[in-house]
Amino acid sequence: MTSPEILISEVGPRDGLQSVQATMPTTHKLRWIDALVAAGLREIEVGSFVPARLLPQMADVAEVVRHTLTHPGITVMALAPNLRGAEAALAAGVHKVTLPVSASAAHSLANVRKTREAMVEEVRAVAQLRDAQAPGMLVEVGLSTAFGCTLQGAVPEDDVIWLAGLCAEAGADEVGLSDTTGMANPAQVRRLFTRLRAELGAKAGAAHMHNTRGLGLANCLAAYDVGVRTFDASLGGLGGCPYAPGASGNVVTEDLVFMFEAMGITTGVDLERLMAARAPLQAGLPSEPIYGMTPEAGLPKGWTKA
């Protein structure tokens, strides 16, 4: 069997769930993750290791990690905003920890109450912890607001590349770019990912695109065109954009998989099973709207994977 050509990293159980007001019951969360695994997703960001008083939606993250680890062949990923969170993630047994580092100086202070330089030192501390206690664990940095910031406005591309280099030097295995506020366009995506890959080589990481202004899929395709092969997405477009009513936040996993498979680019994901995974999501969050053009329209008549 041919190996998939790209990796779809499902971030709904973390980025999606922490962006909504309701808290999904743990039993529903586990059923949803089981359905995602059954659809063929190979990397799932299952939660955040943050204080429960700040994000009650993530209070069960250690239990969710333990459950997901029972599925062989799945990369279990979680977010940790600092060394303390990374220690908890390591203790739970995650395969990959991702740290949020803001390209925007203003967003960094608002989001994690640290400067960008201070967050680079957090990356260094987490990498040192990994080296000492869990050499197999990967450390990923997602550079948020890499394409623009609602607080700061434009984010200089030189700042993004400078910060990416610092994170890689501090010990990050991968550094990806996130369009946190949905401000990116395809030309900008091609330009910035080309620079990132020239600067970091194999350490250049995933594209995390939002669909706030309707350009999510176009931006993913632009990233693919310049060599990106890992893409974050959220089932049903859940979360990621609480301040844009009527617009999905994260790129919709179902639509992203359909686009690539229709082009003959293999993802390893079964679209019918993926769309079936919307049922446990909706059961766990019955009042939360979810999105997706492919689930609404259905697969084309005679659809077969290219």
Explain what you see.
The protein is an alpha/beta fold. It contains 13 helices and eight strands. The chain has an eight-stranded parallel beta barrel with strand order 1-2-3-4-5-6-7-8, surrounded by eight helices. Helix 3 (61-68) links the parallel strand 2 and strand 3. The chain is globular and about 50 Å long.
Quick tags:
single chain, 306 residues, alpha/beta, eight-stranded parallel beta barrel, 42% helix
- Approximate helicity band: 40-55%
Mean pLDDT, rounded to whole units? 94
* Tally of alpha and pi helices: 13
Distance between the termini: 14 Å
What form results from the Cα inertia axes?
globular
Order of helices and strands: EHHEHEHEHHEHEHEHEHHHH
Topology:
Blueprint: E1 7-10, H1 12-16, H2 26-38, E2 43-48, H3 61-68, E3 75-79, H4 83-92, E4 96-102, H5 105-112, H6 116-133, E5 138-144, H7 157-169, E6 174-178, H8 186-200, E7 204-208, H9 216-225, E8 230-233, H10 253-262, H11 271-276, H12 278-284, H13 293-297
Parallel strand pairs: 1-2, 1-8, 2-3, 3-4, 4-5, 5-6, 6-7, 7-8
Helix pairs in contact: 2-3, 2-12, 4-6, 6-7, 7-8, 8-9
In brief, what are we looking at here?
The protein has 306 residues and is of the alpha/beta class. The protein is built from 13 helices and eight strands.
